Amino acid sequence: MAQRLWITGEHAHQRLAAARARTAVPLVAPIDAHRRRYGPYTATNTLFTALVPDLLATSPELVRRHDIEVLSVAPDLRSLVPASRETLTSLAVPAERTRFYSRVRTLRLSHGLVELLRDHLRTLGGPRRTLVLDRLDEADPTDAEFVSVLLRRLDPDLLTVIVGTGTGPLDDALTVALDRYAQRLEAPPVPFPDPPADPARAYVDADCCADEPALLAAYAGLDPDHRRRLHARRAEELLATGLRSPRLGAVPHHLERAGDPADTGAKALLEALNYCVDMGFYHATLDLGRRGRAAVDRATQEGPWWAFTTKMTTSLSALGHPEEAEKLYDEARTLSVNPIIHRQAAYATAMIYTRHRDRADRDHLRARAWINQAIAIASLQPEGADRSFSTVFQQNGLALIELHLGNLPGALDLVSAGLDRLDEELGADEHRLHRSVLLHNRAQVLAALGRLDEALADFTAVIADDPNHPEYHFDRANLLHRLGRDDEALAGYADAIRLGPPFPEAHYNRADVLAGLGQLEAALDDLSYVLELEPDNVDALVNRAGLYAVLDDAAALRADLDAGLALDGDNPHLLCLLGQSQAEQGRAAEAERSYRRALAADPRAVAAWSGLAALAFDAGDPSAAVGHLDRALAVGDDAALRYNRATAYRALGRYDDAVADLARAAELDPTDEDVRRERSECDRALSLAAGH
Question: Which residue ranges contain the repeat TPR (predicted)?
Answer without folding.
Answer: 436-469, 504-537, 572-605, 639-672
